[in-house]
């Protein structure tokens, strides 16, 4: 099996640091991220400029599929970065990066995720819908940014 990679980019009318803090606020994800049922932060260490680093556990579900996994999370608003990496779960690998850079209209947002499930049927099902999944995730974050920052 090979990793599935999803990428999406947008320009949004908000400050890069504010968007980075929003994406780094993982505790609120179950309120607006599609398929995310629960998320809890297991460990947390503060970093400068309102950032943090720690471990979070998420439960994702859609139709009859339910998956629980833990990730390390690093949020650094001053750098415009959020990084996520697999700690444990039903995947061979999971890496996720958000980048926020200044743009004349606000912020350039780049979302990238690469994953590979241990179960080939699950990998194939999710990979077949990767473009739809990327659009839904970005749309959810855009709506939440408008709600919180607009």
The unreliable regions are none
CA-atom Rg in angstroms: 15 Å
Tell me the span between the first and last alpha carbons.
Answer: 42 Å
Q: What is the overall pLDDT average?
A: 92
Shape: globular
Helix and strand sequence: EHEEEEEEHH
Secondary structure: helix percent: 25-40%
Oligomeric category:
single chain
Q: How can the largest sheet be summarized? A: 7 strands, antiparallel
Structural class: alpha+beta
Strand order of the largest sheet: 1-7-6-5-4-3-2
Total count of strands: 7
Strand portion: over 45%
Please give the count of helices.
3
Explain briefly what this protein structure is:
With 150 residues, the chain is an alpha+beta fold. Helix content is 25%, strand content 51%.
Task: Summarize the SSE layout with pairings.
Blueprint: E1 4-12, H1 16-24, E2 36-46, E3 52-62, E4 65-76, E5 81-88, E6 91-103, E7 106-117, H2 120-128, H3 130-149
Antiparallel strand pairs: 1-7, 2-3, 3-4, 4-5, 5-6, 6-7
Helix pairs in contact: 1-3
